[in-house]
Amino acid sequence: MPESEPEKVPGYWRDIDQSRTEARRLLRKAGVPDGFSFVLKSRQLEPHISAGVYLIDQWRQVGLKVEHHILETGPWTQDLRTGNYEVISDFMGEFLEDPDLLLLKYMSSDKNPLNYGGYTDRVLDDLYDRQSREPDTEKRKQLVWEFERRLLSEQVYLIQLLWRQRIIIHWAKFKGWKITPSPYPGQDLVDVWLAE
Q: 38-54, pLDDT tens digit by residue?
């Protein structure tokens, strides 16, 4: 969605104090007591650890108490796949910026084994199928935005922690490489060479 759209969703506002106030209100409305505690499991790998520390700090600021369990990759993967967690970090880094690939993870668990939340949402499934088949780029974009709105605000199964860091090293002897807008497509290195 364009940047102006997520800003309309509670929790994604630019005013962090407004978001925290709304979070406290929603927690009280749901009957969650101040100081409610749970465990966050993170993989012993960056950015899982840093993201976990950040999230715990943010939850603390709305009255939640979170214990951070940092797990080796094997146990973390086992817990993620079997649902042995209260809250767990799970990251996604796909090779192509296409909605068919990026939204697949959020389809119902009976349609996609990568949905580790175990939820079923036929509205998301329908939106996914419709956007995938839509030949008109503008109409497809609108369907993708509808999918995103549902995922971020109407039926929140997970918290989207938007994190992206792109590090590009430039070396004078490295020739022929052209930066692309995305780190995924266009990385054909056939014309890259080292000048000695």
A: 999 999 988 889 889 99
| Model pTM score | 0.75
Taking Cα atoms as reference points, which of 32, 8, 29, 30 lies closest to residue 18?
Answer: 8
Distance CA 162, CA 129 (A): 24
Closest-CA residue to 131 (of 104, 170, 109): 104
Cα–Cα separations (whole angstroms), residue 163 to 48, 84, 91, 93, 112: 11, 25, 10, 10, 24
Q: Residue with structure tokens 């890259």?
A: 192
Q: Is 178 helix (H, G, I), strand (E, B) or coil?
A: coil
What does the pLDDT look like over 45-88, one tens digit per residue? 888 898 899 999 999 999 999 999 999 999 999 999 999 999 99
